[in-house]
Amino acid sequence: MEIPTFVYPLIVVIVDTIVRISLFFYVPRRRKPTAAMAWLLAIFILPGLLGLALYFFIGHTRPSKLRRRRLATVNKAILESQYVTDLSIQYPERIQPFITLNRGLSKFPAVNGNTNTLHIDYLDTIVTITNDVKKAKHYIYIESYILAMDKVTEPLFVAMEAASKRGVEVYVLFDAYGSHKYKGYRQMKRRLTAANIKWVAMLPFSLVPKKYSRPDLRNHRKLIAIDNTVAYIGSLNLIEPRYGRKDDIIYEEMVTRMQGPIVTHTAAIIASDWYSEAGEAITNFIDLESPEPIAGEKGGQLMQILPSGPAYKNENNLKLFIELIYSAKRRVVITNPYLVPTEPLLMALVTAAQRGVNVVIINSKAIDQAVVGHAQRSYYGELLDAGVHIHLHNKPTLLHSKHMTIDDDIAVIGSSNMDVRSFELNYECSIVIYDPRIVARLTDVQGHNLAESHQLTKETWKHRSIWLTLLDNIARLTSALQ
Which domains occur in the chain, in start order? Predict the structure, then answer.
């Protein structure tokens, strides 16, 4: 029996309708309404199956089942390890909620008896790291979004090679996408292998179902741990300060060098990333004697490390930031190059300013990522209207540091930007320091940054061109496609 020709278009329409209706059940599941709406619009508006293909390619923020399973294994090990402290310990009422929240999110407790120094000189920071690598006797763990060979990092590579030669176990992790675009990437990998340095390129693209995850999920952490004696965390990538750019932008970073029990917590996170990528458990930091708490005037700093990323069920960093901002009574100062707030974060900032908290955002006038730069500028008007003070660091420096102070007693330093990418797509890591002394030092750094910035006013912002406003708004819409 011959099928009438009109039946074929009818079948297409029916199938298309069923697919579209089913998407209303599937796309919004465990997704913010704004993101779900943006994806549905993209699927329905884009021609043919392009929108649907795009969704199935980059519409899922979760990493592969293999990585999620390995993270669960690591978290279980943390709960059964030396990191478990007496949960009945009562910290001051002011900070107890944050310690409890972070412990629930990441399993890591707060630990006392630490000390740290802040490093804001880009070149000097790499020299300091290199000197610590030269002193290593047992292990070196290095994790960086970008690792590149150039004149600035060459001494560090030489130091790692020398350490490996004298029997130190050296483990190096770098993001597959973040590092591969820089000159000498293949030579760098061969050089590490030749020096018997173990290395892994994190989150490489793969179509294998077991290992597949959204291709733009990235490991953005910048962490170093050496011999249970010293650790680093901050915004610094291991590359020369211009990142090989052809324009005049130069990056300014901040890193904190830490000593005390917090070092083994830092090492544990790097080891967990190694296990997630390589399936190999590294235990150098467990086999060594745990670092003793540092006493005296220089010690006694209470710290808590907070890893975050798509493998976690919660947006760890976002929840911490929001809770801290809502707790502020006098002052919040945020230094961050990419601030594209989600609705909850925007509400927290606006509410804090409206209830009389002095909310200060230090951003950069220079833009190195056009879409993100314009997206964050689309929020300036709302923030200024609420009474938030926005300061733009002068060109050509791009203030790439990522830190925050709450009143005079809590500081956060790490790799996390304040945008959807860092909240949902990037693996990040932050250190929370509950200590007025560190806040005082960080306030000095903020003062230095403010002196090299100019304050944005509502009047100035209202008179910007229609063309720039249009670009900002378009960029803002794209930020929802997560």
Answer: 8-58 (no CATH), 65-97+113-303 (3.30.870.10), 316-478 (3.30.870.10)
